Amino acid sequence: MGNVTIAALFLALAVIIIAARAAGGLARHFGQPRVLGELLVGVLLGPTLLDLNRWPIFHGAPLEELLHAFAEIGVLLLMFLIGLEVNLAELARARVVAVAAGLLGAGLPVLVTLSIGLLFGLPTNQTIFAGIALAATSVSISAQVLLELGVLRTRVGNALLATALVDDVVAILFVSVALAVFGSGNSDGNSSILVTVARMVAYLVGAFVLAWYGLPRTMHWISHRPVLAQAFGTAGVGFAAALLFGWSAEALGGVATITGAFIAGVGLSRADGAVKHEIERAASYAAFALFVPVFFINVGLQINLRTVTLSTLPLALLLLIGAVASKVLGCGAGGLLGRLNGADALRLGVCMVARGEVGLIIASLGIASGLLERNSPLFSALFLVILLTTLIAPLLVRQAFPRGATGQVERKAS
User: Fold this and answer.
1) For 148, how many CA atoms within 13 A lie in the half-sphere containing its CB?
2) pLDDT grade, residue 229 (50/70/90)?
């Protein structure tokens, strides 16, 4: 990497951090979460208006790839920190809610999108894949809002995290099935699906066992040996664990890297109080000072509202209504089946609205496999819906947890 590229990265990071802090502070001033301001300013810095990545001063530098790498570290650290924050007892008690809400919340968007596609006369395979893109949830956005509001460690917050795990597995399974059935058309599609499911289940079980028993004991062993503690540092080992589990999730389990980081955080939440505090403090400084703002800004940098034409608006509007309603109703119904009260079930559904980078990743897989066409009205509408659900989610979550209700939610969880 040349000096010009490094200098360009430094300048871009400086612009992003200043913009993120200013926009986040402005959002907080108006009673909104910081993430909303960061997402909005990311859109403004993107090709919609300022097109940061194409500034002449950055000519010749692979800025998009570099910022994407920083963003991936940001979302990984964010989910690692969320794992450190979870209430383990509540997370375990949320398993019924998670399965019901995860299945209904992932399945209903596919059915709703398929119905809308049939109404507009769109190809069935394309609308099914678009529905799969809308089935996935970007839990990091809602979780960050709950963290800011101080209600992440509540019954609803833990239900959100548990549901997101199920949602992640179901969405990946849907993608695998769609690619096997509509993509290459191989005769061994059913075998590939079974292998994919077995691989995910084996990884999730193995990773949880290793994180649950291995990580706390490893940290305890290191912290009680001064030479090792001074050489490695508990915070450094914690960072390494988050990165290794993130790598293994994708490389070995075929699931998202953030799932592995979250599992590592859950395991280290059982570490000794002082050790956990040191890891949490170091990770928080690194994450929120640099990497997490880059992640949220980068989501906006990928959005180009100029590609949206008037002809796509009716389809986009119906998809947006369907995307929001299907998540709220699907996950909310799952919450009711899991014996959440009506208010908490509604909050859970609202927290699952954001599609964010997860939807964009699945949509890009559709482009790469030929199941979606980049210049088609369906893809443009899908792109807009993913953006809008990402932008409105913090607002919806903030309204679902008004200041007066926060204390009530916390008391129910205690």
Assistant:
1) 22
2) confident
